[in-house]
User: Fold this.
Amino acid sequence: MRRTRLGDVTGAVTDVGDGGDLEGVPFLPPAPATRLTDAAAVTSAPAVSGAAPLPGIGSMAVVALALPAAAAASVHSVASPAQTAAAGAVGPTGATPDQVRQALNATNLGVTGAGFTVGVLSDSFDYLGGAAADEADGALPPASQVSVLKDLPNPNNPAGTDEGRAMMQIVHDVAPGAGLDFYTAFVSQQDFAAGILALANAGCRVICDDVSYFAEPFYQTGVVGNAIQTVEQEGVIYLTSAGNRDAVGYQAAWNPIQTATVGSTVLHDTQDFGNGSPTQTVIIGGNRMEPRVPFVVQWNQPYGAVTSNLEVVVFLNNVVVATVTGNGRDPSILFTLPQGNTYAIAVQNLSGPRSRPHQRGCRQQF
Assistant:
């Protein structure tokens, strides 16, 4: 499972209307971790062609980060051991090393990993306990071959699930001779990057993670990306989970409508999502695991030095239920939407004189 965190920032809705489930609810809580669920579907208008970005704004991205179950498809899918293992069904204690190797098409892999150390970044290693037993019974290498550079603090909110240790068990099944190092990636983006460098400095020749932050930059290399590039230049092989979000988005050149009305709300300098529509429909179904679904807006200006400020307006049944505005510093807006509703999303540009929309342009992705 790809594990995700909202980000390292806090805040709240700047204005809330009479909006049912959304009324009075902070849209940007303090950085909780959230699993990507199959809760949301985006009804996208086609990309607007022929409207090139104009000076001053560049490009923008808006992403609803969840997949409907019917659309979920991994870029590189691997069948589970239960589906492929000829040695029999996976037992209650998990797959055997032979089953794991067969599931990964590594049955005839002629290497053991001896002489290498693999670094793993995830939520936690021994938050729930049980690591010593894994080292003793062979699910992990002996304790002398396992190094935890930093684990998730305990207690923590959210609590760790020891998914990092599960990843290390898989590595051990495939490469039983390799040493294993762990560093939590769930403290912050900055600490995630520090962990990548620390693992490389500890001698890890291969490093893998299954974590992403929704606040990581779309249009420039962030602190985590910089750390990955640094260790790769030192010869480290870096692997990361791709996730299943590639198609869950909308991207088009900024094509503003000078004035538009939704219900009784007048929007200015707002994106045309196609055929003159000032809104994008976002359908969020129900899911038992997560009550809210993340929504991200980014545009192509430098972090810490934006020159344009955007605002997302959320409608439910043509009534404004929330507005979420950029912080005036970073080209990113991040909030969550409660499940079980069909929303209309508008994006308007608040910066600059609204009477001259031709001076502003951007790209979008939902």
User: Anything to note?
Assistant: Residues 111-240 form a domain with the Rossmann fold fold (CATH 3.40.50.200). Residues 210 and 241 are 5 Å apart (CA to CA). Confidence is low (pLDDT under 50) at residues 9-86, 352-366.
